[in-house]
């Protein structure tokens, strides 16, 4: 197993917030090829995302993710709103949020950073590019960067 | 006696007073001598008519002369021998009485004569005044039932002087359509109303306008006993009024046709002189437009802004331009563009402001329409291209994933099929990207500004450096000018042309030259290559969107590059064309305005 900086040797828990099933599958297929073990949880809209994070309703036993991959264009509660709520919630704001979305607009980029997204990535159109990006995400966030202590024990 | 006097008045200019009075005296003496045998004594009274006539005809001196001569004649007598004898002592008392009486008579008569002269002069002056002023007069004496007209009145109506004048004669000359009106007003005047009317008269078939005023006198019982009036020929004024009204009517029509109003203000920006065109259009009166009153015809939402712009222009004495809505005389608001300039005096100060307002309502409507269409078109193409990306990405990614995972694991047919899908998706992707780029051209680009074409070319060459290296291309260029084109567009333009020049190379290494020359108000750019060239019959087709002349395997590309170039060039008011020879190479030309 490649060395990771995760303190307690648990697999990395990732919450993927994405409404397009084909994109979900693509992300899963891409991320699972790696030697870094990670568990990916998927929710398909903003409301579910917040419920998962707050462990409400059917998500009362949900695990607290180490990282969130967030699409901006979501039904019900929009991704931008989710971002805002995560980063203003004391219990959630330490979780790194990687905005992974199709939008290239400067407005979206600026807005996301203003809402304290940890980074913003545009989904490449080409598969090979996408695979490179996914790899970069894993390398950077999961091996190079130090994630905050999860407090999962609590 | 009166007849005699009149006859003598006509003779006066012919005989001098001296001879005249002498003649009279001689006549008188002769008469006396003839009457002597029959009359008692030698009455001097015979000389009195001569003296009086002389004084009346010739004045004071003539009268005195006649007196003197008469005295001498009276003293003389003819004796039987035919000799003239003077018997002074005997006749002296009589003579003295005669002389005194005569002198008194002469004085009275000469005064009379002067009065008559003055009277005649007044009459002449009055007549002349009336003639000059084209105003006649008349007098009515009710008791004598006499209506007297002055000469000028006769002239105005062209009725001979001797014609007896009655009210009916006058009314018959009045224009048939006005007779009822005139008669009504006259009857009202007889009842005490003021009389000041204008009406037409027909004189020898031609039409004249007259203004009649009258002053009637009534006695204590309200009965009319006299009246005096004037008749002024106002035909000229009336014609001038007609002409003015016609020209106002013309103003209005002119404004309607051209949609232009002229205006004028004083140096302080206030309306002082009349502005007929503005008034005719807005229906305001002169009182209403004076000063800043003209702004009341402007749409309430535009008034403040207009006043601001106008005040500023007046203060700074700079060209004035503003657009606002004006309320037409029928209440409809229309858009106008107002422009004005100051008119300077020799000393550099402003004498007045002149300007026009042009109806731009149609233009504004058209502009709004165009803007709306453009916006919706832009939105449409943006949304279309964007929304197409998503499913495209899915197709593209999965076909590639398929390729990655199953290439060689299924049969070769599957490999081919998958490959076609992948390639197809890639091409579609490129097409959409190009289409988006094409649709964006002509839309708002940040900063028109000045572009240094040399530096843009440099960037293009840098961006194509790998293609240039791979193909061993050599690129040369003239010194390029600074153009008023947007840099981004220029970049796309050059990039497309140069990359084409490299792509469509022949067997030799591509040699590309970018040139420029000036033709009047245009720059003519050229991109020359030594590539495969273009068949003449396709010279126009290649600029059409998605047109390709070669198979996909031979030369890649969606065929949108040149249509993007064309759109860019035409958006800047230029033209683009190609001159080429198959197998030898092509030169692409495009023009840009020198700003």
Question: What is the tally of beta strands of chain B?
Answer: 18
Indicate the low-confidence ranges of chain B by residue numbers.
none
- The strand count of chain A comes to 5
Mean pLDDT score of chain A: 83
Quick check: average pLDDT of chain B? 85
Q: Can you put this structure into words, describing what you see?
A:
- The complex is a heterodimer of chains A (154) and B (595).
- Chain A has 154 residues and is an alpha/beta fold.
- Chain A has 5 helices and 5 strands.
- Chain A has helices spanning 21-32, 46-54, 79-88, 106-114, 127-144; strands spanning 12-17, 38-43, 67-70, 97-101, 119-122.
- Chain A has a 5-stranded parallel sheet, with helices on both faces.
- In chain A, strand 1 (12-17), helix 1 and strand 2 form a beta-alpha-beta unit.
- In chain A, helix 2 (46-54) packs parallel to helix 3.
- Residues 1-8 of chain A have low confidence and may be disordered.
- Chain B contains 18 helices and 18 strands.
- Chain B has helices at 2-11, 17-35, 47-58, 60-75, 88-133, 151-157, 167-173, 176-190, 235-258, 276-282, 286-289, 300-316, 361-406, 412-440, 453-463, 465-471, 487-503, 561-571; strands at residues 76-78, 84-86, 135-141, 146-149, 195-203, 206-218, 224-233, 260-266, 320-327, 333-344, 350-359, 451-452, 474-477, 482-483, 511-519, 522-528, 576-581, 585-593.
- In chain B, the strands form 5 sheets. In chain B, strands 4-3-7-6-5 form a 5-stranded antiparallel sheet, sandwiched between helices.
- In chain B, helix 2 (17-35) packs antiparallel against helix 3 (47-58).
- Chain B is rod-shaped.
- Chains A and B meet through helix 1 and helix 5 of A and helix 13 of B.
